[in-house]
Here is the input.
Amino acid sequence: MSKAPLLEMKNIKKDFFGNQVLSDINLTIEEGEVVGLCGENGAGKSTLMKILFGADVIRETGGYGGDIILDSQKVSFQSPFDAIAAGIGMVHQEFSLIPGFTATENILLNRESKKKSVLSDLFSDRMDTLDRKDMDRRAIESIEKMGVTIDKNMLISNMPVGHKQFTEIARELSKEQLKLLILDEPTAVLTEKEAEALLDSIRGMSKRGIAVIFITHRLGEILAVCDKVVTMRDGYVVNESATKDTSVQDITKWMVGRDVADSDVAYVTEDTGADKNIIMSIKNLWVDMPGETVRNVSLDVREGEILGIGGLAGQGKLGIPNGVMGLYHSGGTVTFEGKDIPLNNPRKCLDSSFAFVSEDRRGVGLLLDESLEWNVSFPAMQIQDKFLKKYFGGLLKWRDDAAIREVTDKYIEEFKIKCTGSTQKAKELSGGNQQKICLAKAFALEPKLLFVSEPTRGIDVGAKALVLDALKKFNKEQGVTIVMVSSELEELRRTCDRIAIVSGGKVAGILPAGEQLEKFGELMLKNC
Amino acid sequence: MNKINYSDYLRRFSVPLMFVIICAVCAPISGLSPSYLCNEIVTRMGRNAFLILSLLIPIMAGMGLNFSMTLGAMAGEIGLILVSDWQIVGIPGMILAMIVSVPISALLGLFCGKVLNMAKGREMITSYIISFFINGIYQLIVLYLMGPVIPIKHSNIKLPRGYGIRNTVSLLSMRQKLDNLIPLNIGGVKIPVATFIIIFLLCLVIIWFRKTKLGQDMRAVGQDMGVARDSGIDVERTRIISMVLSTVFAGIGMIIYLQNMGNIATYSSHSQIGMFCIAALLVGGASVEKASIGNVFLGIILFHTMFIVAPKAGTVITGDSMIGEYFRVFVSYAVITVALIMYETNKRKNKSKAGEQLALAQEEANE
Here is the structure.
């Protein structure tokens, strides 16, 4: 170990507006080493990689603490371009490709081979013509480095997903200075065969001396290809061990294991409601929600229960409520109390006494420029003719401002909403209080079935507890069936009766809330 | 599979096809002789092609149809007005007018590009409104400033009140000077060889431009601004350059157009030119995001054949020549509307395709 490591990250810290997301991260990578990085959503993997890659968002939110040492030199990247120049490449989860360009053109995007032309001297070197032959040569070279075959002349838009992924990797490999490649869930979109080819090419890169950071939820792949596996949880590195000394079970445990000793919450441990009525039955549902695709989901919701839907980000859990409520294009059958509910028609859903608290609070959930009164009463007024005074036998409908104020004040008090009064504008409230308004709005509809999507995303601890308690109370006192989608497993376990885990767009399994954490962990990783 | 391709083609070329049918029906009714028709079409080709070609670059850069090409047309007109006051005639006059127009066009293009960078995704409506705004400034300059501020010597182009420019400025001194520079007459059809050579050169420049680094960058920016930016391309600058080029070309195109016409309608020449050029391009089978040189020429032939035969046919059928005039204005707006609607429906169609695929994959899995 006389040689200095390629990359050292020392005591990396990062907070977003006081919210600590990374604490004291230490990470060392040798030349040609393949490091697997795993952890649940929100464990801090992406943030760590963004820091390393000099992403703009890190600088905009106040930078980071700690040191990054690359090739024995302290570096601090101001932008991704600095990172690229220093030899770091990153393949993001979302493709960064031009659809109408060929593989060659994409691999060499903005780094094309050029020939001088007459106008180059007159204007700038942007008037150089492209040297197609040399571009082809360089593209082939980097595709060969990868060890898989893709057609260099094929348009990206005609390519299968796997080839798109390979094109991205080839682009990174075509950069001469590349020393460290970050792959963020590269196999998530690949078929098994393609994934196998990718793992091969990772091994090849490592032999050439290129170090790889490999982020994936497929733990088997980490074991197959990595030298070292680093597990993160809640902003800490909880474990770092050589791959040969570990197993999928170990990693799963490190990923999900939490200090639950101090919790005095009684979980619902047994599935006691098997004899209850099925109030809603979803069959063969597909939803085309970008980034949250749902495939062939069948799910029964029992009357009066709180059903949790959990899973990792991007696996499709958000797609289920959004698809059923008609916010995204969907297909399949949904029956509620024995009646078919037409899909892609939000109004019909609302008419059938569904309500939905969207994860997109500011976009879908609220009328930001209107008062709290309007926000709370608007859907009820529109859909159920509530809060209206009728004249001439219903010919003329007049808003009942007194009733609206009364109901808004009731919820402001009940949910302890911090505001100057019921006429304050919704956009002026904090995130947690906005969320409470969203709930009030849904409650005012007095639904039979309530979908709640990520109810605690981005709100503080106090508001979180209040929101969850309100949901539970609403469920118990009014007998409303609730389907709650959340990325936080712990929160689901504390609130729900049963939890369905979605993985790869499908329901991987349904467990009682009190089941062991490892079992949930297994289901989460089942199809992804 | 073949059948799907067939209907895809049909949809793609539905607008040109519609015009082929209109022309085929109207041409015999109009009773115009083929040689007259040919002559007219060749003349209009020379007159309009340069202007329409100027639209191609912004489409390549993903900025849609450049309604603000009118800005370049105004710059060209200002150049011509000044040159005709300086009494520089013939080809030198044209060249000088172009030289005068280029910096004005470039400045206007720069302004337009900057504004459009603030209105990404709404380029077309923004550029349309910009053209109205700049038209106001153009009128201010031509109607009030030319005379007191910008010296105009000759009273034959000045309004009788002593300042401002007349409604019509005669370009008799350079009328069709370019067209007739190299005379050629084939079977009674007069061919403006010099004009065609210039148009041909512009086509070559556009083809060559696509092969340059800048052209490649524009294509990248046009397809995905985010990806282009991530790869280090200066998106804003690239878009501004495309607007500047388009406006400058439009200015030169307007000068070629007006030398063929032989006079400037000071306050209206430019106002409809954008609309007619865009309609012609769309008739040629172009779309908001894709247009080729072939579209330009096919568009000119079809659109202008319709332009010539429809009024005649209208007169023959109804005995009223206004009906044809009405028809061609109506059709050019209709074409643009249809093209914009088709652009939106295609986008939506592609979106729902993703859903259909999901449903299909699921069915297969269930079987």
In short: DSSP finds 14 helices and four strands in chain B. The mean pLDDT of chain B is 88.
